[in-house]
Amino acid sequence: MAEDTRLRPVKPAKAAKDPESTKPQKLADPERASIDLATQEMILRAQELGIETVFDRAESMKPCNIGTQGTCCKNCAMGPCRLPLPKSGIEGKDERKGLCGATPNTIAARNFIRMIAGGAAAHSDHGRGVAEVFMSAAHKETDAYKIKDVNKLLSIAPYFDVATTVEVDGRQLDRDIDEIAVEVGEKALNEWGKPEGELAYLKRAPAPLYEKWKKNGVLPRNIDREIVEIMHRTHIGVDQDYKNLIKQGTRAAIADGWGGSMLATDLQDVLFGTPYPLQSEANLGVLKQDHVNLVIHGHEPILSEMIVAAAQTQEMVDYAKSKGAKGIQLSGICCTANELLQRHGVPLCGTFLQQELAIITGACDAMVVDIQCIMQNIANVAACFHTKLITTHPIARMEQENVIHIEFDEHHAMEDAKRIVRMAIDNFKNRSAEVMIPKHKHVQIAGFGVESIEYNLGGMFRGSYYTLNDNIINGRIRGIGGVVGCNNARTRHNEGHIEVVKELIKNDVIVLTTGCNGIACAMEGLLTPETAAVFCGPGLAEVCETVGIPPVLHMGSCVDNSRILLAATEVVKAGGLGKDISDLPAAGSAPEWMSEKAISIGHYFVASGVYTVFGVTLPVSGAPVFQKYIFEEFEKLYGGMWDLEVDPVKHAQKMIAHIDKKRKALGIDKARQRILVDMADRRDMSAV
Fold this sequence. Notes:
By secondary structure, the chain is an alpha/beta fold. The termini are far apart.
């Protein structure tokens, strides 16, 4: 019989003790820590078991005010130099300086673009890893990976100047697919380090946007160079002009969004299949007490694709049953979860902040991690249970002794995957704590992309983004909101995500989502077509009912923000809403961001012409001049700009105000009368 999972009062007497302190550690209030009931229950269980989680640590460790303002410099050993804003504010000339004389604007700009470099490096290294596996598949060096989506391969080949046909005796014949794959793979890998030219995918952007980048001197040369140059420029004594610093940050961010991330998305689609809508579930309630629970966490789908394949073999299913389990339940956390969700329907176990909680259920037989957003403390939590924690990537290991490292090799992919699945199965009988799985979960529809949205809007023969544009022009849909990003323990878990999204769809703004925002929306039940009738304004609800889509379209992982860029480009191409992304009635948002990747993503959206609002904080407030530059003056350069709003409802209202401003500029801010045209009138019109 499962333990009663109803929320009970916190017992302060059970507060965990810091071994180096006589004071009990502060505990999080579950209801104040998260809006999600499953999360509240697991926080409480952790506290009753004396297990520390990120929510408790957030109560004990307060953020550095100066670091939050972006004006703490530790780029040399003379520092850290801390330049807080005066309590009375800046009056007249700002006299604050670091030991080398660096101003707040220089320090904030350096810190900001170093975050862009970190985020772009994470995404580009992800893409590089996929490209290397793609080359192995193209060269037939591995049996595990094959070209699954030939049409996607043929669609991206022209951007690399790879011919898809060959002339023979005056006739154009289709080229061999393997030849095309090898050439695409070689040219894709070259994007990380080619010595001259510019990134191949830049021409996928609307022509006016490309010309803006060219005019402002921010066309990326190759992916790695832009990241390295940031690190050079921000070394002590190099670039000391905040405008010049952010110019390089812009170049690197574009290299992320229109380079590393876009390449990762496309090559994953070619290797593993382009996503199309499918049904699944989300939240901790997807775990099953009578099944082997294998949780996959991280961001790269290369190994996890093989784990899905291995876990579905009859051999592994039979082995699980031989150990007393009814089957194998795969589920995921963070963006590896989103990758497996959108292609296989693997359920979402939780967001970034729920990774410790999945283990605390006592039902997690193994957690397999790859790269990015993996808390080191999950090893400490796993040590309190029977859970096997398995790291798999050479650049992402943990120091704790209870962590198992199985380094993944694409040439032995299925062998590695089966070894991991067997390890989870063998551990099923070792469950040492009472299993407590929250009952909370929701159905979701996910797997939307540029191709599937086009299909959903018009079917196989009439698919077009014109349908979306037409409904924006006629006012049924007010505009488009891209709401993405992580969770942040400095704010109430999922509250920002959900409040922003609900406010947008209530006001007829269709939402495109990725990452942990997508998971949060799934957990809240916002990713089903039925949602529209409950939460949407009348116009968006009508469109969703007619087309059969949710008002929130889950487009995948954080590298898949490139899908949002390309969807916006398709809207521009469809016509009627301007000639550039900056003309569209659209806005971006990251309500609970926390990682460097989020800053890189935010900046490549801004540089692509999107007004982008962040929640929680933004490390620029200590340098008012630099903040004004990216919050206001940037719009003149690229058509997009940054903004910050902590309150979720005001956050969404800022986005809506921007959408309305763009509608007015396009001349579509007035309601249009809908006229039913009869056949006689149609004949008269056709005769004109």
